[in-house]
Structure formats: structure tokens, C-alpha cells
Amino acid sequence: MSDAADIVAIDVFESARAAGEPITVALVKRRVAELLAHAPECACGRCEAAATARIGHIWQVASAWERSMAATRRRAWRWALIAIQRDQVAGRSHAPTPRGPQ
After folding, report:
1. What is the rounded average pLDDT of the residues 84-94?
2. What's the angle, vertex CA 5, arms to CA 71 and CA 76, rounded to 5?
3. With left for phi above 0 and alpha for psi between -120 and 50, is residue 78 left, alpha or beta?
4. What is the pTM of this model?
5. Which one, out of 61, 84, 88, 91, has a CA that is 20 to 30 A from the CA of 37?
6. What's the 3-state SS for 46-67?
7. Higher pLDDT among residues 93 and 44, named by residue
8. How much helix, strand and coil, in percent to the nearest 5, is found in the chain?
9. Which CA distances in Å does 3 have to 53, 64, 91?
10. What are the residues whose beta carbons fall under 8 Å from the beta carbon of 45, sequence distance 6 or more?
11. pLDDT the model gives residue 34
């Protein structure tokens, strides 16, 4: 993977999170097109990275981050539920059982 793909993947990942969308190749293509439309005098660095990075690499990096975040949330909920169940078996009162990640 290239540094350019990482730079654009950060932008794609944040855009997807802000919009509440999953990361898809279509989203990556749309965001790259938006970055390529920047003015020539733009100095953000993301537009230059978008010009050199490959769509597939950007999607690979951003979707890996998305899967990692989802797995981390699932793992946290699983451990919270185990702790609640353990406390309930021990007779300690606890707040209502959480319903899982939203």
C-alpha cells in the first residue's frame, strides 16, 4: 500500500462515518472525484494523493479500518455482557442489559 492510498483512505473513512454510510468502491470513487476537482492551487495534499493512489488500494485500507472498528465494538459489547452476567450470577445488582452497538 502507498502513503497516498492511506491519506485518501483517511478522508474516505471519515466521510463514510460522517454520512453513516458503509465504505464501498462507489463511495471511494465519488470521494476521489471530489478531491480531484480541487483547484490547482490547492495545498491540502489530499487532492495530490488522490491523483496518484489506486481506487482498489484506497478501498482496501478504508474497508479494513471499518471492519476493525466494527469488530472492536462487538468485542466491547461481548465483554460488557459477560461482566453483567457474571455480576447477576454473583447477586450484584446492575443496570439494564445493553442492547448492542447501534
Report:
1. 71
2. 10
3. alpha
4. 0.69
5. 61
6. HHHHHHHCCHHHHHHHHHHHHH
7. 44
8. 70, 0, 30
9. 8, 15, 53
10. 7
11. 94
Residue type (1 letter), 32: V
Work out the angle at residue 34's Cα, subtended by the Cα atoms of residues 15 and 2, and round it to the nearest 5 degrees. Answer: 75
59 to each of 15, 20, 65, 74, 83, how far by Cα in Å? 13, 16, 10, 22, 36
For residues 13 and 62, the answer to whether their CB atoms sit within 8 Å is yes
> What pLDDT does residue 60 have?
94
Alpha carbon 5 to its chain centroid, in Å, reads 15
pLDDT tens figures, 50-62: 999 999 999 999 9
pLDDT tier at 100, thresholds 50, 70, 90: low
